[in-house]
Amino acid sequence: MNVCKNCKKELSSDEISLYLKMVNRAAQDFICKECLAAELRVTTELLDERIEYFRSSGCALFSQKNE
């Protein structure tokens, strides 16, 4: 189980993928979307938009949602 290295919240696969894509592709430790937003000084909504953009662009880090 992966947890945020800052706040210890359990991480979703999207949060791990976002960290790998935006921060460090070789990371072993990750931070949650809320902590990443604070670090980058952006909103969590913007990060959600990035996740959907990467997913729709076919980035292999992000699994396709079943609709």
Characterization of this structure:
The protein is mainly alpha-helical. It has a domain at 13-56. It has helices spanning 13-22, 33-40, 44-56. The protein is globular. The mean pLDDT is 93.
Helix content: 40-55%
Counted by DSSP, the helix tally is 3
Q: Sum up the overall morphology in one term.
A: globular
State the oligomer: single chain
Spell out the helices and strands N to C.
HHH
Instruction: Quote the distance from N terminus to C terminus.
Output: 26 Å
Weakly predicted, low-confidence segments: none
The secondary structure category is mainly alpha
Summed over residues and divided by their number, the pLDDT gives a mean of 93
DSSP strand content: under 5%
Main beta-sheet strand count, sense and barrel state: none
Radius of gyration: 11 Å
Q: What is the number of strand segments? A: 0
Would you spell out the secondary-structure blueprint of this structure?
Layout: H1 13-22, H2 33-40, H3 44-56
Please provide a brief summary of the model:
The chain is 46% helix and 0% strand. The chain has helices at 13-22, 33-40, 44-56.
Any descriptors?
67 residues; mainly alpha; 3 helices
